Amino acid sequence: MTAVAAPAPVARGTGLVGTGALVRLALRRDRVMLPVWLGVQFLLAAGSASSVKGLYATDASREAFAATAGNNPATVAMYGPSTDLATLGGLATWKLGVYGAALLALMSIFTLVRHTRGDEEPGRLELVCAGVVGRYAALTAGVIVALAANLVAVPVVGVGLMSGGIAASGAFAFGFAVAAAGFVFTGIAAVTAQLTEASRAANGMAAATLAAAYLLRAVGDTTHQVSFLSWISPLGWTLQVRAFAAHPHFWVLGLALVATAVLLTTGYALSGHRDIGAGLVPPRPGPAVGGPLLRSPLALAWRLSRGLLLGWAVAFVAVSAALGSVAAGIADFASTAQVRDMITKLGGEQNLVDAYLSFAMSAAGILAAVYATQTVLRLRTEETSLRAEPLLATRVGRIRWAASHLAVAAVGVVGLLALGGVVAGLAHGLRTHDVGGQVPRLLAAGLVQAPAALLVAAIAMFLIGVLPRLSTAAWAVLGAFLLLGEFGGLFKLNQRVLDVSPFTHTPRLPGADVTATPIVALLLVAVVLTAAGLIGLRRRDIG
């Protein structure tokens, strides 16, 4: 009988063994998504620099803009303080600062969680760790890839700004400023990945922290009494660097590095106190027998998605209240022709207040589309996690199972947009003493965004049914729509290019005329894509 040698155990103190192999694997798996994230950053930087250079070519025009923009709480809440708007670089990166940092933060969160908790949840990491792989190798690989992607974003953003005529020194300094936010949220994701057993929950907690950071910065930048809140937010640190000032505050980057080090140390410490596949926060056990509200696929889909919907509802209330409350003061801000032109391009051809409200509601439509995409992609998660197969082994058919998640997504989209419209209408109506008139107007402005958001959900369903391995590309499609629909006017893109986005065809309420043709067309396309996705799901193999 031939003796079989036992696998050599991993020596103590070698918890990082195998990290290099896992880094190469992670880079291979992310060979498409990471370039997409970075490409979006380049396009935003280049487009912002080019558009601002055309609109504000003279020092006088920039000074006039700076004199008015910094005094309006609406724009300060959205984009940050206007300390460097008199410079071309400061004006070009004013809108890009917060949102560019937020995009890198999301990239870091998704990357880190994907290669840690995302591999633990279905059991893949346990198989990998059965070989000669150290305990901390997966976490270290995820951290290395996420941090490296943020470092690559520095020249990407810098070159993008330079292509629009921005000086290299300020452009690269700004690149470091936005990358610093990505560093911090890599650390935050390293912590949340240790707390829960589900990758969705880990992503959700980190994303909620990002939303809280945005709100802290917005409140701190607009309220002098609590201005210290901006210094608590990692997004606030991005703006405090002041890359285009005469004397940039590069020492602020040290805060981000210290925070990253503390968070990563915490993540490693927590990782050493749990088993692979387990979270530090144990899941709450459910009843042995499901109640009457869990005896249908629709009830199950609602149970799985209700927490996500509740979180989005809270976010919609907070953001809609903030945007609606400052709408009345937008006319004071837009005291120059250039500013009026910018707001009109963002919001439509109406008066300035209606144009601003239209822009706010279109942003709500984008957020609703994000929720819808998350909810529909839950189908693919249930499938790849092998939870759908036992359900489909019963009398539940595939179409009924998928339709339950689609129904929850559709109801959630309509409910969130209605909630956002009502809250914004109340906030704006209280400021203008016209609650009865503003609530219906903004409710309609919110609901009219639903067809475009539902079309995005239909695209996700189509990918799940026809191209399941590419289902996550729904996020890339949504990102492309965001760029075209929200920034295409500022970038002076051809109208045929802008028409690719469903949000371009949405009526710009309030203030514009409503025609049924684009709404019906969007709904018909959504129905066709959904039907094609359901047919594809019915015909292909599960898994």
From TrEMBL:
Recorded superkingdom: Bacteria
Residue ranges of the TM segments: 32-52, 96-113, 125-154, 166-189, 201-220, 250-270, 309-335, 355-377, 406-430, 442-467, 474-494, 514-537
Keywords of the record: Membrane, Transmembrane, Transmembrane helix
Protein name, per record: Exporter of polyketide antibiotics
Species whose genome carries this gene: Actinocatenispora rupis
